Amino acid sequence: MGVQSHIRGHRIFYDGLEWRYSDNKKVISSENRLCIKCNRLPTPEGYDACLGHIDGIASACCGHGIITPIELEPRLE
Fold it and tell me: What's the pTM?
């Protein structure tokens, strides 16, 4: 495997064409999984249920059960 990452705590990898879940090889856009930390889907607006909307932030990650520091990216306006 080449490039790897996580989505809502699930390990994913890029196969050269699409991002897939590492455990079952399904394309991530075809299967919407629950967060492994809070056991919820994203909000209807698309925010991670663990965090919800954070004013002034373009993207953020709570780690979803993976031991990593919280990352915040300020919104450029």
Answer: 0.66
